[in-house]
Specification:
By secondary structure, this protein is an alpha+beta fold. 25% of the residues lie in helices and 32% in strands. The strands form 4 sheets. Strands 1-12-2-10 form a 4-stranded antiparallel beta sheet.
């Protein structure tokens, strides 16, 4: 999925979970009034459904109301969908999950877009579509630029004060041992080559012959 792609998410596929693959701007839904419902448990842990509503002018332009399985439902007009074009101006990607302000230019009009915890036209990645047959949306943020990905930072490395002190002591002990070994090696070398060590038979290598 690339920015600008038209994405259709459906709940009618039994083998697929209706999870949004990227951040979308809602342009039409299966509900007559253009509403859609999302479960945002993956974002904030809440299981109550959040309302989203498409712009009325886009809902009427891209869909017709028909009888489906004995119920009135919006159906996409494919001829209009293939010819539909728009331009969306939005802010650069950020980590604010429920803040989205943009403008869409379509059908000769410029209309505001917004996103909140409930309401608006912004559909976040990793939310699940509920109580809605399908939605059509335009991808605005994809991949690592989606809201949820921008919030996925590596957890900070927690180190206690005792561990910090212990690390300091280990470096200090290593430095002391290295100094003692170096001084001892230098002293032993100087003593072995001195006149005082010449008569010390017990320091000489053992020769069994």
């Amino acid at each position: 999925v690339k920015v600008g792609d038209m994405v259709r998410v459906s709940t009618s596929e039994p083998d697929c979970t209706a999870m949004l693959p990227c951040d979308l701007v809602l342009v039409a839904s299966s509900n007559i009034d253009g509403t859609a419902f999302l479960e945002t448990a993956n974002l904030d842990g809440e299981t109550n459904l959040k309302l989203r509503d498409s712009l009325e002018v886009l809902q009427k332009e891209l869909s017709n109301v028909e009888m489906v399985d004995g119920n009135e439902q919006s159906v996409v007009i494919m001829d209009k969908l293939t010819k539909f074009s728009c331009k969306i101006h939005c802010h650069p990607p950020d980590m604010m999950l429920y803040e989205f302000n943009a403008r869409i230019i379509a059908l000769g009009q410029e209309m505001p877009l917004n996103g909140m915890s409930s309401g608006g036209q912004f559909l976040q990645r990793s939310t699940k579509l509920k109580n809605t047959k399908w939605v059509l949306g335009i991808a605005v943020y994809t991949g690592r630029e989606t809201k949820i990905q921008m919030n996925m930072n590596d957890p900070p490395n927690k180190v206690s004060d005792i561990e910090k002190s212990l690390n300091s002591f280990i470096f200090l002990l290593f430095g002391m041992l290295f100094t003692i070994c170096t001084v001892g090696a230098i002293g032993a070398g100087l003593f072995a080559g001195s006149d005082a060590a010449a008569g010390s038979w017990y320091l000489q290598p053992w020769n069994p012959t």
